[in-house]
Amino acid sequence: MTLVTTLPAAPPQPGALPQTESRPQTGVLPQTGALPHGAGLCTCWPGATVWLTGLPSAGKTTIAEELAGRLRREHRRVEVLDGDQIRKFLSADLGFSRDDRNTNVQRIGMVAEVLARNGVLVLVPVIAPFTDSREAVRARHRATATPYLEVHVATPVEVCSVRDVKGLYARQAAGEISGLTGVDDPYEAPRAPDLRIESHTQTVRESASALHALLTERGLA
Prior knowledge:
By secondary structure, the protein is α/β, with parallel strands linked by helices. 37% of the residues lie in helices and 10% in strands. It contains seven helices and five strands; from the N terminus they run βαβααβαβααβα. The chain has a five-stranded parallel sheet with strand order 2-3-1-4-5. The chain starts with 47 loop residues before the first strand and ends with a helix.
């Protein structure tokens, strides 16, 4: 009978940093060299939630997707919680009253906090028109010491109504819908966001770069 002895791992040296797992890049796509979603992504950075609030058609989702692409190329674990998708799959039972809007924001906030607490950088391009709703999400993150950043995409309503990506402003003007945030429903802009982006004065890439710089400054990218 042959005995196999396994020696214990050497203890870490004083002052040494913990070693993160090095994952082989086996999922690299041919030709492009890109990584498929979720493959070989770095887990050595802390997670965080970045909430992009602003009026409809302000550019929140466009900026979030641009930044997400850049972060994934840097091998970060990133998720974008799109408001329309949340409404379809998680909040289909809700309307657009103040209470329902608050419930929707709290549901998104809970999902974001759980992901961020587990090392994912979560980008949330969701209007969240009311200050108290956004502060409740911030408090949820604070309770678990999970980083949370609030970004105001401060595009004026005049610009948003011209962009009108989903045709909401035209439908409101035609009397087909009511309760459009920033027009006939209130929007409470953040007084002191971590970053204010005026997307109408710069390109999408410049807006995403400004947010990337903030993440780098805070040690999150």
